[in-house]
Amino acid sequence: MYPIGALLIALFLSPMEIHIITVLPELLESPFAHSILKRAQQKGLVQVHIHNVRDYSLDKHKSVDDYAFGGGAGMVMMMDPIVRCIEHLQSTGKFDEIIYMTPDGERFDQQIANQMSSLNRIAILCGHYKGVDERVREHFITREISIGDYVLSGGELAAAVVSDAIIRLIPGVLNDETSALTDSFQDNLLAPPVYTRPAEYRGWKVPDILLSGNTPAVDQWRFEQSLERTRLRRPDLLDE
Ligand code: ADE
Fold first, then answer.
1. What is the number of domains present in the chain?
2. Structural contact between residues 114 and 8, judged by C-beta atoms closer than 8 angstroms
3. Are residues 196 and 89 in the same domain?
């Protein structure tokens, strides 16, 4: 059973649409088929559509890549199948953003996830090989996102990361609405440590305060732990 609030939200709001454009759709099957992301789709809060670039290729080999002009190792994703795919999707509705996943994009963080969770319809293009023909970026892409300073084999896993971070912030997706608010980074603080039963394991004890039943004292302890953890591990967040 879903909470009544989530059902009402689903009834009155049209679901956010995320369209992922890829040459490897198989890579994106599992991330959306389980747990929170699966339930978010079942509740009608988000629709995730995966589009195979190859379906938009017109030549008989269904090519999606070609040699780079100027030479050099590595293939480049061709304009035409991507443009056909994007224009087809645009003909079914307007996009708030058309995002390209690339290691040279803007670094993804919680603030960008928050912004994007309020959008209605986004497309995410996954790069592959040496990347896409630059003209796709110039003429169609509205935002370029990197998930960190390392190079993945393609943009699919990065697109799944970004989608996950966005979807869990859509109102009604998490059962306990406050749990996204207490995530690390939501207030520029890392989350405090958490414990569950048993209260003692091999002599290792849960902090007494968490067993006290004193909610204000527990909140204060958690805040202090967050602050201390942030100071030790990510002091840069406190400077912000
Ligand atoms: N594609 C390859 N590496 C990537 C990264 N770090 N972020 C986003 N897309 C990518």
1. 2
2. no
3. no
